[in-house]
Structures are given as C-alpha cells and as structure tokens.
Amino acid sequence: MGLRVFGNKKRTGTRYIYFSRERMDERERFGMCLKWPPGNKIYMTWNRKRYLVTQTYWDSRIEEYNAGNLGV
User: What pLDDT, on the 0 to 100 scale, is given for residue 29?
Assistant: First the structure.
C-alpha cells in the first residue's frame, strides 16, 4: 500500500505489507493509512523478498493499493 493523495504516480515514502482478516475496500484502506499504524493488523515494511515469501503462503493474489510505479 502507498498513498498518492496528491495524484503523484511515483512511489514516495515507505511501502508496507499488511494483513487483514476481512477484505477492505479503497475507502477503508485510505482511512487505515490516515490512522497509521493500524492497531489491529500485522504489518511489515515491503521489500521484494518479503513480498515473494508472503505470496508463497498466500492462497490468492496480493492486493496492491496505490503502489505507484514500483514493480515486483
């Protein structure tokens, strides 16, 4: 996840991977970002290795939110 509040399409700031028990829509994710860090979710900073290991154990595609131009 990342925040592009001002429409900047390039990645800025720290990128995170978070885990949520329930599916979140865009509005809920945006609200979570504004109240970061989330008190009821597990999260970690993003890097390629963590992303790939997480995807290995995750049954479906990892959702990305405002991730900008950073590719995997």
Answer: 87
**What single-letter DSSP state applies at residue 2?**
-
Give me 13's structure tokens. 């700031």
Long-range residue pairs from 38-45, CB within 8 A, at least 24 positions apart, any chain? 42/18, 43/16, 43/17, 43/18, 43/19, 44/16, 44/17, 45/14, 45/15, 45/16, 45/17
Sign for the CA dihedral angle at 48, 29, 43, 54 comes to negative
**Which amino acid type is present at position 35?**
K
Q: Is 60 exposed, middle or buried (CB count within 10 Å of its CB: 0-12, 13-18, 19+)?
A: exposed
pLDDT tens digits, residue range 13-62? Answer: 788 899 998 988 889 988 998 898 999 999 999 899 999 999 999 888 88
Selection from 39, 41, 45 nearest residue 2 by Cα:
45
